[in-house]
What does this fold into?
Amino acid sequence: MLSARAAVCKLPTYHPPLAGRDGLRLDFNENTVGCSPRVSERLRSIGTEDLARYPEREPVEAVVAGYLGVKPNELLLTNGVDEAIHLVCETYLEPDDEVLIVVPTFSMYGIFAAAPGARIINIPAGVNFSFPLHTILRHITAATRLIAIANPNNPTGTAATEEELIRIAESAPDAAVLVDEAYFEFHGRTVSGGWQQFPNLFVARTFSKAYGLAGLRAGVLLGNALQMSAVRKVASPYNVNSVALACLPEALDDAAYVNDYVSGVCEGRERLQGELQQLGVPFWPSRANFVLLRMGDANRAFIAAMREHGILVRDRSRDPGCEDCVRITLGSPEQTDQLLTVLREVLSEIGILRQEARP
It folds into this structure.
């Protein structure tokens, strides 16, 4: 009887809890107000003939390259960051290669790396989820072929410095160093272009978060031109659909819309962190569009009560080191107003709001 490869049979199944998401969705780090009106207008103009043609990726890649300040042969548009991760794993990993992953982090690094039979080495984050640079360096061996780093990290919101990331690329010249900058717009720091000095360095970006295109699945992988030519060999020529390709230039052209949204999110992030500090709720300062907090024994009650008040938040208790933790996405200023009002109400209802913090 036909059976899947042993490595595939051992893979965990990732089931995002997407069902029943009624309310203010602060659970998936999505853009909470939607894409630019210019994208909506472009969507309405797409006709049946456009959908009947195979998508042409290269012209849009040239547009994205100009926007990001790189050469067209230094990037590949992908079906979200997920495909970018998958392609790097398919290009460079053989069975029994070693892959270093700092945990807790995005689950798909481990899943895609384990599929070809690579050996996953999980490196715990440092105290307060600090970036464990020296631990990573100690684990680099001749068998290390991939080091995957989310920066800022999900679900913690913490970030490594550019110097730390370059140090890793320099210390592991025979390994692909993939820096996932899905939350770049909310952080503002990047190692993009570092492949000029270190050809093993890759950067992944997404248009799902700040640009509000999660449903179109548009991402980009950037890297050294020679290495990117190898990655292109394992990518489908039609991996990004024609609707996403039609809308992406419009999203990039509306910088004012994206900047306004990002500014509101970052302001809301600071407001939420200030509120949590005042309320005595432990949290980790974030560089992304979300904040991770620890609710302790009240974790489940808090998530359920927030849902009853119309706000969805994400339980991260199963992530290493995140026991009893909740992740809350930030949105527009008006949504942050709603969040902070409900937050106080819920903490009071479940009995963990300190008396001196009550209004």
In short: The mean pLDDT is 94. Residues 255-279 form the longest helix (25 residues).
